[in-house]
Amino acid sequence: xxxxxxxxxxxxxxxxxxxxxxxxxxxxxxxxxxxxxxxxxxxxxxxxxxxxxxxxxxxxxxxxxxxxxxxxxxxxxxxxxxxxxxxxxxxxxxxxxxxxxxxxxxxxxxx
Amino acid sequence: xxxxxxxxxxxxxxxxxxxxxxxxxxxxxxxxxxxxxxxxxxxxxxxxxxxxxxxxxxxxxxxxxxxxxxxxxxxxxxxxxxxxxxxxxxxxxxxxxxxxxxxxxxxxxxxxxx
Lengths: 111, 114
Fold this sequence. Notes:
The complex is a heterodimer of chains A (about 110) and B (about 110).
Chain A: E1 5-7, E2 10-14, E3 19-24, E4 32-38, E5 45-50, E6 56-59, E7 62-67, E8 72-77, E9 86-93, E10 99-101, E11 105-110
Parallel strand pairs in A: 2-11
Antiparallel strand pairs in A: 1-3, 3-8, 4-5, 4-9, 6-7, 7-8, 9-10, 9-11
Chain B: E1 5-7, E2 10-13, E3 19-24, E4 31-37, E5 43-50, E6 53-57, E7 64-68, E8 74-78, E9 87-94, E10 104-105, E11 109-113
Parallel strand pairs in B: 2-11
Antiparallel strand pairs in B: 1-3, 3-8, 4-5, 4-9, 5-6, 7-8, 9-10, 9-11
């Protein structure tokens, strides 16, 4: 079983602050890295899928980077808004199509 | 709305029983994934089907089985249920086979075993 780690476990920021979280994974097993946004009482919503070392993806105020050689990905949120409050999950896909999820970073944006 | 549907939404059953959870993927998606989220654990990958065939197997117990039908809907069968099987079960679908395709999650089925 692979270990996908996310940090921090939780984060409280003020509205308007920018923030970032980390997802670490064993680089030797990498095939793809998924980021999800998961609001309470809903289901995970796909944000990004990244496959290439050095990849950067952006969707509105949210962006992500990937370093497959050292085994980490960063998710950035610029100018956090209360509606960004959610748990952000990353998941590693290996070449055998196994998926390994981190335990998530819970973000609370205080108005 | 992701376009993935799961039924039932809630299920309460007793230990030792058997239940079937159903998932219909988004139109055009050929892959279906099943995941389990227990209270004390994160999301655990159970199994993947692609176009009717099993393609990847994760931490799925032998008491659990799944299949994908010709119309691409999938069912997850859980038998000899134990208290520890109480969890939220998600299915997700994607258009392709491999792990680089975006997955769309259904609303989940909450199973309570008493």
